[in-house]
Amino acid sequence: MNGEQATAHVLSKLSELGIDHMLVGAFSSNAYGVPRATKDADIVVEFKDVSVAEFCSHLDSGFSLDRQMMLEGFTGSTRNVVTHVESGFDIELFRLGKDSHHQERFARKQRHIILELDVETWIPTVEDVIIQKLRWARRKDQDDIVNVLSVSGDSLDWNYVRHWTDQHGTTELLEQLKGEAL
């Protein structure tokens, strides 16, 4: 099993167990832009009746859970890392946090076929991918935004995007990246 297959397996188990989730990060931006390789997968989860350890007990034996929770600074959510041991591929499980954009992007999620994983799963809207990646503002996230804008820019709900970029203070960065996408 490689990293993509491991990710598909985790997504399948989340669905089987009725755990609400959404694939984010590079896989979600790849769905709307120019695909790039990634070293990990990021999934937002809403564990209600099942703990992360309980969920991981349903995965194949080739997965290990780092029980140490880490805090994600922008949204205040916590995350656990599940590693597919054979491939060394990490799958980060971010708990749905209280951050208002985090909540709204989760509520707006859409079903989408992810070609690299050969699965249909929940991902954020194209607008929410851009908004979240602007918050991270790492160079690879900025490159993802440029790629998404180059492919999907004409179809965006710009009022929605501007609402959140104004709140997050990322409007200037968005305008700069829009210039790079031309």
Write down the overall mean pLDDT: 92
Number of strands: 7
Alpha plus pi helix count: 8
Number of domains: 1
Instruction: Give the helices and strands as they follow along the chain.
Output: HEHEHEEEHEEHHHH
As a percent range, the share of strand residues is: 15-25%
Distance between the termini: 39 Å
- Which regions contain 5 or more consecutive residues with pLDDT less than 50? none
- The strand line-up of the biggest sheet is 1-2-5-4-3
CATH architecture: 2-Layer Sandwich
Rg from Cα: 16 Å
CATH-assigned fold name: Beta Polymerase, domain 2
- According to CATH, what is the class? Alpha Beta
Tell me the major beta sheet. Answer: 5 strands, mixed
Overall 3D form:
globular
Helix content: 40-55%
> Based on helices, strands and strand pairing, what is the structural class?
alpha+beta
From the structure above, extract its key features:
8 helices; five-stranded mixed beta sheet; Beta Polymerase, domain 2; 182 residues; 25% strand; alpha+beta; single chain
Short summary:
The chain has 182 residues and is of the alpha+beta class.
Architecture blueprint of SSEs:
Layout: H1 3-16, E1 20-24, H2 26-32, E2 40-46, H3 52-56, E3 63-71, E4 78-84, E5 89-95, H4 100-107, E6 110-114, E7 119-123, H5 126-136, H6 139-152, H7 158-168, H8 171-181
Parallel strand pairs: 2-5
Antiparallel strand pairs: 1-2, 3-4, 4-5, 6-7
Helix pairs in contact: 2-6, 5-6, 5-7, 6-8
